Structure formats: structure tokens, C-alpha cells
Amino acid sequence: MINLETPKKFRPLIEQTKQVAEHVYRPISRRYDRDEHERPKELDMLAALIDGMEEGGETGGAGAAGVKRTASANGDTGNRNGSNMSTALSIIELSAGDVGLLLAMPRQGLGNSAIASVADDEQSARFAGRWAAMAITEPEAGSDSAAIRTTAVLDGDHYVLNGEKIYVTSGERADLVVVWATLDKSAGRAAIKSFVVERSNPGMILERVEHKLGIRASDTAAFRLENCRVPKEDLLGTPDIDTKRGFGGVMQTFDNTRPLVAAMAVGVAQACLEETRRLFGEAGVEIDYENPGRDAAVAEFIAMEADYEAARLLTLEATWMADNSKPNSLHASYAKAKAGRACVDIALGCVKLCGALGYGEELLLEKWARDAKILDIFEGTQQIQLLIIARQLLKKTSAELK
Amino acid sequence: MNPTSLGLRAVRRLASNDALDRLGVRERVEKIVYRSTRDGFKAANGAGRTFVAASRLGKPARQRTAGSELFDLTPSEDQQMLQESFRDFAAARLRPAALDADAKAMAPEELLKELAELGLTMIGVPEELGGVMTERSAVATVLTAEALAHGDMGLAVAALAPGGVATALSLWGDADHQSTYLPALVGDDVPAAAIALLEPRALFDPFDLKTTAKRQGDDYVLDGIKAMVPRAAQAELLLVAARMDNGQNALFIAEDGILARPTPAMGVRAAATGEIMLEGLRVPATALLGDGDPAVYAECVRRARLAWCALSVGTAQAVLDYVIPYVNDRKAFGEPISHRQAVAFAVADIAVELEGMRLITLRAAARADAGKSFAREVALARHLCSEKGTRIGSEGVQLLGGHGYVKEHPVERWYRDLRATGVMEGGLLA
């Protein structure tokens, strides 16, 4: 039966994450935005708490990890609301707290998602409890991840990695970095594999930590890989170059994480709208949905809220499909495209509506407007999402529709 | 047949209508007929039908609320059946008839009859009153409206309007209302019926009606003008929105003495929209729906907006389905124009916004069926469907370029139709 309300069973989880957002993230939001590159120590305790909760199975995934596609274990074919949805719901609330701090959460990195999605049981056990960042982007390969130049050459029991990686979220603070490299440049996408590299590996040299527009609580690192030797068993997935499967393994991570980044965007938009509603209230303006009348500001607010609502529902739809084992690549991109652009428009719109209060650093609206922009860029830019969507709808290959 | 002769025949029928004498308003009506003819208003209800209850109900029947604990986007079996049969009908019968109906600003009677035979007016009616569903039906109506509007929005509006009245009577009518009007509305010969809510002025606000309903003895006297009423000139039964003496808005059942004039619009022309003139129209006190509860009126406004959202989703889907093969087939500079990002991204944008429109509309409808508040959700849906729907209509024409501007392709009609959402109030209900 059609129902688009948040499932009752996830309410305790949402309540918990709201508490974290309000009492852990918000009080330190401004500080770690100002003191960029300072490690938010407050998160270590929180991360330990979440680890404990996950072990007890209480969270349904409070962070960015554990998005492996799980078919219904008990074999029932009915409607399921599972971990993809609960993870997105908690990410929405945490991002409404502070998306920079969410991204800086120990052991909740994108690398952890990759490991959870493609690692075999032995690897999963070996990397359990460790914080893994993800290194894909290179100076000459951004959205075009098939063009990466970092090489991996088998030498005895090790792969030897050489190349340059940038925009590695949590690269400085993580324990592990999942590095994408090619086994054979001439073999294209199929030869691209991911390798789990110890952060302490002397062959992986930290070049710099970036200074950014937003999400400043989260460190963004650049590495140089110089004859970086990685044990053979730390390659994720199969070493075979199967041109038919192409990106298979590594891209699977993205089908699962795109809705989660959309959830971050929904969370930031939610924070902006709630704060603006509060400031409207202080200014004596109530949002009358039935009858916005001729109040331009109220009409603009409702317009933004409508985009927020569409983004939120598209995100939940994509996770619902994943939970029910329906192919959701198209809908994951719908969610990411809509949420990414809505989030930026809403954040900037709210700054405008709130005037000096929106633009100043006393409140957090201006920070959220800076944070928001990355959400329309990383894990596939707006344009990449539109390409993915257009190719599917128009049935075009990447050679035809470039 | 020209419209004047049609009007005259209607007046003749009206003149011989016993109901006029029965209600003792003949003189009043004659005066109105005389005055309004000057402005092009004619008596509606060409069929001269009177609604009489064959048997009386003891108490009103209602559909049950129905909700679910889990997030779910799968329609029920009944809903899927409705969706599929109306989708098929829309493709086979509505789409081919759309161009002509748009030009003539008139829906072919036989099409409306066929749709009535499919049970279109029964969706919102409780089973014990001749309906088909025991549970609340906003989602079912939304899915149906979407399916029909994929064929043609104007024809969909013409066909759905009587069902809106049936739904309203099912939701808010008392036992007498239900036993008097519902048998005809779910019968073989469905009367032209609609909800007359919108008024012809800029910045119209449905909560600030200028149409008044003044209490005089045992009657209410309605005064005002209603705009964009589907099939107004044929109207046999209307729910008229008016402001009462206490300042509250309410709905009144009007069946006799309805004066109408066709006012074709930019789009949804097959719905044969028209103005209704209420000049001292006298209705009995029992014509008041829902005891004049302002909450009933507010819910009517919301459900009507919901229906227009659903229509925009169907028509926007038609745009998407039409432009995809077009941009793949159309060649420029030696290759399909779909190989250009500017074109491909426009298609992707339509798909993204359309899916958002669909979900936001379904959420509001599902909340209505579950008996939850849905004022906010409808407001958000209406905004999104109005703005993105209109944008999609515009992009549809743009993607076809000059070809989109001529009537050889349906996109120019969809451009006109999609502007209706955000303008229209009332008319029909979900």
C-alpha cells in the first residue's frame, strides 16, 4: 500500500541521531569550521559509542558505513524498509547537525563503505574497526574516473602503486586509504581496482591538507604514491580484468552511496529551512501553507520547502528500492541530482531571506551555504548525474553521449 | 449546431421544467434568464434532469481510512488494475481524440460515456452506495487522473469532474444528499457535474470568496460568478463554493437554475470550461454540504489541488515519453541531437523533476487516505507541480524547436495544459 511516511520503526533511531546532531555536533560546529585542520576530538568518543551501538545492532547504521546490498534474509518477498533507508534517515539528521563533522566521523568513511560493499569475508574481518578513506580523484582525472593514471604492478606478493591522489576525505586522519589504481592502462575501466593501503605505508606520502570553502571540519588530503608496496591480499574484489563486467565492483559502491550523499544534502537543506522558519517566527511571520497570500518571502520559503520535500522523497525512494533489491541506479542519480542542486539553492536562498543574520557568522546559515556546495560536486557532480540519467533514458553509450 | 440555438433549446426546456414551479422560483429564474442572456449566459442543464432519491439511506456511508506502517511505493492490486485499465484507455481513445477535442473545446459524449462505463465516477464512492472501493480513494484517484492525463489532460478533466462531485458527496454528504445524487452519479447516464470554486479575478484566494450565500428563511441565496468550471454549459449538478453570513466558506449543491457561458481557456479546452453566474440563485437549506463546517471546505480546496497535481504528473510524463524518441530520431550536424549534452540534460531534468512531482503528490494523497493532515503536503505538491510542470511543458516545446510550436505535435497542447495546475481551484477532486 502506497505510503511515503517515515517508518515508525525508525523513529527511535531518528530521535537518537537528532540528539547527537543537537548536543554533539551543533555546539562545536563553528569552532571546527574556524579552526580548519584541527581534529575534532569530541568525535572520537561519539564514534566509539556508535561502534558499540552498531555491534548491538541498535542503529541500523548511524554513519556512512555498511551499505552492502542485503537481500531479505528470512526469504519474505513483501515490502522491506531496511538498512539503506535507515542509514539515509540517520544521515539526514546528522547532516542537519553538521555535515562537515559527519564526514569527519572516525570509521564512517567512504573507504569503509567500499570495504563493506566489495570486500570478502576475510578482508572484512581484517579491516574491521578501522577507519578507511577513499582515494579516487587525481589531478587529471576527476569525474572521469576511468582515466585514472595511478598504476598497480604485481611484484611477488605485493602490488606496487605509483601515482598521485587528491581530494581524499579524511585522508590525514584515517587508518586506511582505499586507493583506485589501474592494473593495465590499455585495458580501460575493467583494469581499475581498489587497494587497501595502510596510512602508515611509507610509500604513501601526505603532500598537503586542503583549505576549503566549506566542510572544513573534515580534512581533505593529497597523497603521492611512490613505489608504494601493498600486500596482494589487500586488493578488494577480484584481480581478474573482466572487460564485460567493466567497473562492476568499484562502481557498485557508488550505486549505494549516491543516495547517502543525497541524504546529506537533504539534511543541510532541512537545517537551513528550520533555522529560517525560526527567524521568520522572530520577525513575526508564520508560514501559512494553505494561504501564502501575497507575502513574497513566505511564497519563496514554500517554494524552497517543496524542492526540499521532492529531494527527500527521491532519496527515500532510492533507498527503498535498494532495500527491496530493485535496480536503483537511475533513481539514485535522480536523488543525487535533485538533492545536490536543491540543497545549494535552498542554503543560498535562506541566507538571502535572513539578511544580515543569514550572511553573518553569528549563526550557522552562512556556513551551511558554504558546506552545501560540495554536496553537488562530490560522489558525482550534478552534470555527471544528469549524464547517467540521460544515457539510461535515451539508451546511449558513453561514446555516443559524452 | 450553433451555440445560440443550443442555448435557446435549453431555455425552452427550462421553461417547461416542473421543478421550477415546485420550488416556486419560476419568476426569479425568468428574470435571470432575461438579464443574463445579454451577457451570453444561458441556462445550463440541457437534459432537464431532476434528482430524486429512489430509496433513502438511514445514515451516510463513508469509505474507511487506510494506512500502512512501512514506506511503500507499490500500489495495491485494485489501484494497479485501475491504473492499467485507464492507462490503456488513455492511449487507445483519449490521445487520438485530443487534438479535435482541443480545437472544438468540447469532449465527445461517447468518450465520456465509455469512461463512465469503466466506473470512473465510482472510485470515491463507498461500496454500499454503488462504488467499488471500501477504503479511501485519494491515491486511487491520483493514479487514475495521472493515467488519463497521459492521454489528454482536457479530456481527463471533463471525465473526472463528476467523480469529484461523487467523492465530495461520499465524504461530506448526509444520507439525503447521498441517496438523492449518488445513484445518478454512479449510474449509466452520468450527469455533467463539477465543483465550482474559482472566481474570475487576479490573485484569487479560495479562502477569500466573493460569492456569497445569504440565508433567507428556509433557503440560501447564492450570488457571484464562478470561473473555469468543467463542462459548465452542460452542468446538471454543481457544488458551489460560497461565503456564508458568518464569514465561513462552504459548499452548496445546485442543480436548477444554473446559468453558464463557455469561456474557453489557453488549455484543458476539451474540458469545455465555462463561467457560472449565480444571480440570486435560491437553494434549500438542505443544499448546504457538511453542515457548513469550514474544515470541509478547506479539505475540498486541498483535494482539488491534489487532483490538479496528479493531472500535471500524467501530462508531464507524456512530455517525457514524447521527447525521448524525438531527440533520438532528430538529426542535426550529422548525428542525433540527443548526443548533445544541452539536449540530453534537458531530458534528464524533466525526468528528475517529474519523479519528484509524482512522489510529492502521492505522499499527500496517501496521507489523505490514512486520515492524516495533508494541508502542508498538498501545498508543497501544488507548488512543485505548478512550477516544474509548467517548466516541463516549456522544455517539451523547446526540445522540438519549431516543430514543437505547431499542432502537428502534441507538445504545444501540453505546454498550454500544464499551466492549468497552479491556476485552477476546484473543478474536480482527488
Would you write up a description of this structure?
The complex is a heterodimer of chains A (402) and B (430). In chain A, 48% of the residues lie in helices and 14% in strands. With 402 residues, chain A is α+β, with helices and mostly antiparallel strands. In chain A, the strands form two sheets. A four-stranded mixed beta sheet of chain A has the order 1-4-5-8, with helices on one face. Chain A has a four-stranded antiparallel beta sheet with strand order 2-3-7-6, with no helix packed on it. In chain A, a hairpin with a 2-residue loop joins strand 2 and strand 3. In chain A, helix 7 runs antiparallel to helix 8. Chain A is globular, with a radius of gyration of 21 Å. Chain B has a domain of 125 residues: Butyryl-CoA Dehydrogenase, subunit A, domain 3. In chain B, helix 7 runs antiparallel to helix 8. The interface between A and B is large, with 50 and 57 residues.
Major sheet strand order of chain A: 1-4-5-8
Most extensive protein-chain contact, per-chain counts: A-B, 50 and 57 residues
The CATH architecture term of the largest domain in chain A is: Up-down Bundle
The counted number of beta strands of chain A is 8
Number of continuous helical runs of chain B: 13
The major pleated sheet of chain B works out as: 8 strands, mixed
Q: Unreliable stretches of chain B, pLDDT < 50, 5 or more residues?
A: 1-16, 22-26
Helix content of chain B: 40-55%
Number of helices of chain A: 10
Secondary-structure element pattern of chain A, one letter each: HHHHHEEEEEEEEHHHHH
Poorly predicted segments of chain A:
58-75
| Beta-strand residue fraction of chain B | 5-15%
Q: Could you tell me the CATH topology label of the largest domain in chain A.
A: Butyryl-CoA Dehydrogenase, subunit A, domain 3
The computed structural class of chain A is alpha+beta
How would you describe the shape of chain B? globular
The CATH superfamily of the largest domain in chain A bears the name Butyryl-CoA Dehydrogenase, subunit A, domain 3
Query: Quick one: CATH superfamily of the domain at 294-418 in chain B?
Result: Butyryl-CoA Dehydrogenase, subunit A, domain 3
Question: How many strand elements of chain B?
Answer: 10
Overall average residue pLDDT of chain A: 90
